[in-house]
Amino acid sequence: MQDHAGTHTEAGCCRHNGPGEALARAEAMCRARDLQFTRLRRDVLAVVASQARPLGAYDIAERLSGSGKRVAAVSVYRALDFLTENGLVHRIASRNAFVSCGHTHTDGAGLVFLICRNCGSIDETTSPEIEDQLGRTLAKVGFKPSSRILEVEGECGACLGKPAAG
Ligand SMILES: [Zn+2]
Ligand SMILES: [Zn+2]
What we know:
Layout: H1 19-33, H2 39-49, H3 57-64, H4 73-85, E1 89-92, E2 97-100, E3 111-116, E4 122-126, H5 128-141, E5 149-154, H6 157-161
Parallel strand pairs: 3-5
Antiparallel strand pairs: 1-2, 3-4
The chain binds zinc ion (2 copies).
């Protein structure tokens, strides 16, 4: 797919507000859905939400393993499964890594991730236009998607704007 999104630099991203907001949102959601927000799930989300870049499960396990305790990657994966299923984090397939969701969108919404090869930042956006088109294309070939996540690699607006990058 061609990258038509390159010139879109809408500042809809609130991931940089840090983990506090993500944790508060997760807590409210778990209460509303009667789900357990365990200590580990909370810790994993806090680590992921503190980073603008995607983190792998082993990275997360390492960050949680300080001060004498050891957190196994398999436990982190289980917590990530929970967080992903509930839309609190998203898996970036091309990186096998995770970012916290900085938006409020419906479960199963079509998502577009803009991944900067230069600085490693990830911007999350939704595109009703792409979703419509994709829905039509999939219906035509009779394919039922389990997820509709697009990952577009390139250079972000900030990197393109740097004088040296020109
Ligand atoms: Zn999201
Ligand atoms: Zn960049």
